[in-house]
Amino acid sequence: MEARSQWGTRAGFILAAVGSAVGLGNIWRFPYVAYENGGGAFFIPYLIALLTAGIPILIMEFTMGHKYRGSSPLTFRRMNKRTEIIGWWGVLVAFVISTYYSVIIAWAISYAVFSVNLSWGSDTTSYFVGDYLQVVDPGQFGSFVPGVLIPLLIVWLIVLGILFRGVKRGIEIANRIMIPLLVIVFLIIVIRAITLPGAFSGLEAFFQPDFSQIFSGTVWVQAYGQIFFSLSIAFAIMITYSSYLPRKSDLTNNAFIVGFGNSSFELLAGIGVFAVLGFMATQSGLPIDDVAAGGVGLAFMVFPEIINQFPAFNQLFGFLFFASLVLAGITSLLSITETYVAGLADKFKISRGKSVLFGGGTAAIISLVFATQGGLNFLDAADYFINQFGVAVLGLVEVVVIAWFLRQLRDLRTHADEISDIKLGSWWNISLGLITPVVLGYMLFQLFRDNLLRRFDTQTGNYEGYPDSFILYGGWSVAIGALIIAIVFTSMKWKNNTGVADKEQSSTKEAK
Ligand code: PFF
């Protein structure tokens, strides 16, 4: 087998994995999800989700990548020839995510520039939707928006440039610089945020526990969903990164460090976000509930408004906030893109340069769809479907196949225990064999019920009330398309020696 790239240091791997996990999801998703689902009380389901799904799956994926030393498709194939498709499916979902994740980073770059003279004006919502994105009706493309297109090309140039340099010289160095920088920038933001007038009322609203919510199934589904999204698990990402680990690596310990590191950042983001929301509520005399938001709305509509109201250094604060989004986003996008760069290189035996060019180039071209005037609507639909269904379906398929059908947990546990300080107990098997499948199964059932059945009840039962045809093209076609392309890739011939003895492989092997 030819030499596989490797991380230079243990810290390099941990920083890269943390860089993948800490992303836009931490900053704009977690605070709002926690607030909406019980505030302080949300930490109970969240912690349980981290310990029964997040960290166990992280350990499992680290061990898979380390043991089978391949991109996700190759790892799955080496585990069992028939499961290669699961690897590709994760890769394809990651591919789709990368096409719009890159666009959000592009917006953040624009907004970092806008903050220099607060050019979003006083009506930040109409600036974002109207002046900046020039949004048209759902389903229409309109023309390209240069303000998105240019930063988008910059994002891809940076990301593909780093990936081109390889694992040690590219990804590792980038994360070694960007993650410490992100932490410093974010700490400055949080310290400034909690010293603002009214910050405390925001924190109170954030931490105020509503224990009644703990008994709601939705809250648990949200907690597990957040953990999956936030830790970048079940999308081929962590398997790929861990395939570059040297033989002697402490897998379990690394998983704990990454898991807790990511959650710490999430908590920090919650404090920062709600402190400034408290400030804004106080300034405008509104209850927190009226100003609280998540996602695109929080970052590009509410935050600019808050920045306008800042007592001093508005521009600097704005710049730091959007710079932190860019840093968190780029380090995640690197990991998402590396899944298909590695997958293509493994399967078709092409150089890293070529697979960066083919894979990354294709993603960059497709991402242009989101740089049109219709981009925001497409992004919304694709993101909703991929994240809701992608997480639940892929996560469920992955754990059920590994734990129940291939019965791999014992082997993986032995492998992890051989090289890790912390030895795994039966909690690990129970988490993966029982708890995670049950929770994800329930999650999926709920999603199908909400998205398929509800439609027949009311006219506007669709997600965000989009018209049927738009949901069909934008959402379902993306989700199903990813699966179909995964099947196509799986059925193609391996150009590389996979080390798996089968008919097609043994002939190539003998020829060597
Ligand atoms: N974990 C990162 C985040 O929270 O933003 C990156 C990411 C991974 C985003 C997987 C989305 C996703 F589906």
Derived from helix and strand composition plus strand pairing, the structural class reads: mainly alpha
Query: Which sequence of SSEs, written as H and E, runs from N to C?
Result: HHHHHHHHHHHHHHHHHHHHH
- Estimated helix fraction: over 70%
* Low confidence ranges: 503-512
Number of helices: 21
Bound molecules: 4-fluoro-L-phenylalanine
- The fraction of residues assigned to DSSP E strands is under 5%
Main pleated sheet: none
Radius of gyration using CA atoms only: 22 Å
Q: How much is the average pLDDT?
A: 92
Number of strands: 0
Q: How far is the first residue's CA from the last residue's CA?
A: 11 Å
How would you sum up the global shape? globular
Structure description:
The chain has 512 residues and is mostly helical. 75% of the residues lie in helices and 0% in strands. The chain is built from 21 helices and no strands. It has helices at residues 10-21, 24-36, 43-68, 72-79, 84-114, 124-132, 146-164, 167-194, 199-207, 217-230, 237-242, 251-284, 288-291, 295-309, 314-348, 352-367, 375-405, 409-419, 426-457, 468-491, 503-511. Helix 3 (43-68) packs parallel to helix 10, helix 3 (43-68) packs across helix 18 and helix 5 packs antiparallel against helix 17 (375-405). The chain is globular and about 65 Å long. The N and C termini lie close together (11 Å). Residues 21, 23-26, 97, 229-230, 232, 235, 332, 387 line the site of 4-fluoro-L-phenylalanine.
Reconstruct the topology from this structure.
Layout lengths: L9 H12 L2 H13 L6 H26 L3 H8 L4 H31 L9 H9 L13 H19 L2 H28 L4 H9 L9 H14 L6 H6 L8 H34 L3 H4 L3 H15 L4 H35 L3 H16 L7 H31 L3 H11 L6 H32 L10 H24 L11 H9 L1
The chain binds 4-fluoro-L-phenylalanine (PFF).
